[in-house]
Amino acid sequence: MIQSVRGTKDTLPSEISKWHFIEEKIREVTKTYGYKELRTPIFEKTEVFSRSIGENTDIVNKEMYTFTDKGGESVTLRPEQTAALIRSVVQNNLTHDISNLRLYYIGPYFRYERPQKGRLRQFHQFGAECISSPNPEADVEIILMANKLINRLGINQYTLEINSLGNDASRATFRKELTQYLNSHREKLSVESQNRLLTNPLRVLDSKDSNDRKVIENAPNILDSLDEESKKHFESVIKLLDTAKLDYKIEPNLVRGLDYYCHTVFEFKSNSLGAQDAFGGGGRYDKLIEQMGGKPTPAVGFAMGIERLILILDSIEDNVDLSDKTDIYVVCNDEKLFGVSLQITEKLREKNYKVVSDLNRRSFKSQMREADKFSSKFCIIVGDDEYSRNSVIVKNMQTSEQAEIAIDLLNTITFK
Ligand code: HAM
Predict the structure, then answer these.
(1) Which range of residues forms the domain containing residue 67?
(2) I want to staple 254 with a disulfide (CB 3.0 to 4.6 A). Which of 114, 157, 163, 349 is the partner?
(3) 291 and 335 in one domain?
(4) Does the Cβ of 302 fall within 6 Å of ligand 1?
């Protein structure tokens, strides 16, 4: 038997109602904020990601599915959407005649990571990007929309962590200070953090290693390095979040794993996820569009992992009922009545009921058993006797009550 690739998962029919539920809520919420969907190809030229996410990030360094195609071009399965979306926005000149471009997306993404709970090699994200506003209102709109979705899904136990990476100048000051501090404790750091210190020192702050954590505890605080402009932006974001009565925790060690961020960064975390506790994250990226060949345009956005949302939903006890009930099961095991049964079935489907019937000519008993298995609310039994009187038996499967009903009257009954 051929098995699926490690770190990939089939979404089985028994699980699909959760996906549909989440997708439905995404479309519902994004619509109320005026966001429109944008879809890009699953793969892009490799430079779309290497240029934007950063050569020294784990994603670009270790995790991309990159290959040379038959024409000799290096292409990459998208590890995230932001860079590809910006490629499309620039290429299609989408910012041309609109003051704020609001876009969202849902789809599969690929990262060659070590698979574990909530971490896959093919996973799915929902995300949104708000393009063209440099102002804190945009950061807050994005955070509020992400938060609204989380709440609409029935998720109440989570934390929103927020931080500011400041503008380029603030970040350069902080990087210098941090490097100096970390260098003075170099020998206490893990090998991985020692390497990061050389290539991407801010990422050391993200380390989960317990020895690294002790060093990080006394590291300089990025918020102390913010210049006036950066401080003003962050304070306005916080004030607006307060106005919106949203709970948050300021986390100065939150740096995120992609290089394109500036100013606001944030993450949504849940206790029910284990080591991979972030189920959503994002931030502002004012330089990316210019870097990708567009006119200088500020932007802010976020993405959430759908598999992680599902893990959280599964951990909630009094969850929304997502069971997939059939309205009506039509039972018939008399060959000469198959045509009648088919007509009844089709008429009910015409009225938007979910109707199934047996296709394997099984016994009456097996069909009734299957009606139970489908959690059918009603059964319609098409039998010789009743048909001679132009009627069928309708059985309410929850109460077990049944009655003989004229076929012509079936369209007057509500099967709910
Ligand atoms: P990210 O933090 O790399 O951000 O990914 C966002 C979310 O995708 C994570 O919080 C997590 O839920 C999910 N995720 C990431 N990797 C995996 C994986 N291997 N398996 C399962 N789920 C995963 C970004 O991708 C940015 N593009 C977000 C953004 C949008 N920033 C601005 N705009």
Answers:
(1) 16-167+227-315
(2) 163
(3) no
(4) yes
